[in-house]
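Example record

The entry below shows one chain as it appears in the dataset: sequence first, then structure tokens.
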Amino acid sequence: MSTTSTRTTSGGQVAPGGTDRAVSTSSSSGTGRLRGGAGFAVALTAVVAMMIGASAPSPFYPVLQQEIGFSAGMMTTIFGVYALALLATLLVTGSLSDHIGRRPVLAVGFVVLAASMAGFWHADSVTTLLLSRVVQGVAGGLLLSTMTAAVTDLEPRSRPGLAATLNSVTPLFGLAAGALAAGAVLDASPTGALTIVFAALTAAYVVLSLAVLALPETSPRHDGWARSLRPRVGIPAPARPAFRRSAPALFAGWATGGLYLSLGAPIVGQLLGGTSHVAQGSVVAVLTGTGSLSSYLWRNRTPRQITIYGTTMLALGTVLTLVALHAESLAGFLLAAVVAGSGFGTSFLGIMRSITPTVGPEQRGELFSSVFVVSYLAFGLPAVAAGFAAPELGLATTATLYGLAVVVLSGSAALLRTFGTKE
């Protein structure tokens, strides 16, 4: 694969360099009908919708555990198979859209995602639940890098840098909205919540599978798609220096996310007295919602400044989380999540701002695939380990050990970015 970064000009020619902005929609394939801001808006809407589905099942797991009957260990397995399926799919198909186009990958991804939501809707056994999670992971692997690349491709030429910001803001906003909305529906209608939430999401993803076909095609077909299916993590040569600088912060940020998303709701429900589904879902909503807002507020700083701030807040927020946990303070725990969430969002923004301009449209799928492989390894592996440790060590001890590890990771990433290269 070529390592020369290119961009498509408004006249349809390919010019060298130009890595500071995305390809114009006016230069992409004429088969799409949504142009300019409309295509960009649809792509962003698809990102938000995809991430709503990623967090919406979380409040239902304790309910399904009671209704179906499965152990805490099986809960960990249900969590883990999603991350494993997503990672496996990313390794195989992460750069596929660079070869066959964004639209077919997006359309298939949303059909698969709709199938997973239908599975949750009718989940009446552990087997159905596990299968739904695997299918959801496959859909996530198809969609994550492709959607991120599509948003970057469709960025308005008059707003360079906007895509990198929104690729950090919108996923976190979607995660917050999904967890909070699902918890609210569960509290308002316990018996009908499963149908309300997952029937709506199934229908939304079917509609989106058709809507993305109207996007301009920003990655025309070319040879090499079969070779791209070999499982691997590929980082385009122009992106490697920025990726190496960003990797510690990337790992620290998503390990922090894994702490809150895997243990946050049980901590609130079992240790801090939060009995409602909204209270338990609020941990994810506060973390990701604050992350989304902080990313927007810090959007005009340099990538290095943003990353240093983000990793510092990750460490500080996790320390405050452990203090609140041992003080048995729900209010303190949520306030700590605000601090950690600010770091979660801004550290990812700094990373995206650092790496996005380094490659052209023909390499973005491959690059973003590598970003999400590292992210979900950091997110999934410690969380799964914590799930297995909790029954043996206790929830409080497990959360404390996990939190201390996150503090070390985040603090180290902050020091490396502060005293490392100034680029």
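Notes for this example: The longest strand covers residues 6-8. The chain has 15 helices and two strands.
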